[in-house]
Design brief:
By secondary structure, the chain is mainly β. It has no helices and eleven strands. The strands form two sheets. Strands 2, 4, 5, 6, 9, 10 and 11 form a seven-stranded mixed sheet that branches. The radius of gyration is 14 Å and the shape is globular.
């Protein structure tokens, strides 16, 4: 059974840093996209970053460019989201989600609408406040 487990959220002051972790299990394909998606109360879900295993490419929302970094540690089978210079508007529940293409491809897999992501973690709360 495919599962995604997030961890690393918490309370941090503005300007601080957090690192979120996403551990996927039950994956049999090496072709996938892992996205970090956040949702604040009253807001729609927003994809903040994505990693594509097909070509190693990454994407970022304009709101987090230069502050957030997505990475994958193959040895630990973990996808990280390093968040620096955090702002109060970054406060949200953060989810990791996985998308699997129908065919193996070397094309970038990020940039798909969120309804394409079939597997979601339980979410981890990030609160940025003084």
């Amino acid at each position: 059974q495919l599962q995604l487990v997030e961890s690393g959220g918490g309370l941090v002051q503005p300007g601080g840093s957090l690192r979120l972790s996403c551990v996927p299990s039950g994956f049999t394909s090496t072709y996938y996209a892992i996205a970090w998606v956040r949702q604040a109360p009253g807001n729609e879900r927003e994809e903040v970053s994505c990693f594509s295993s097909s070509d190693g490419s990454t994407t970022y929302a304009d709101s987090v460019k230069g502050r957030f970094t997505i990475s994958r540690d193959n040895a630990k089978n973990t996808v990280y989201l390093q968040m620096n210079s955090l702002k109060p508007e970054d406060t949200a529940v953060y989810y990791c989600a996985a998308y699997f293409p129908m065919e193996h491809t070397v094309q970038p897999l990020c940039g798909k609408p969120l309804y394409n992501y079939d597997y979601w973690g339980q979410g981890t709360q990030v609160t940025v406040s003084s």
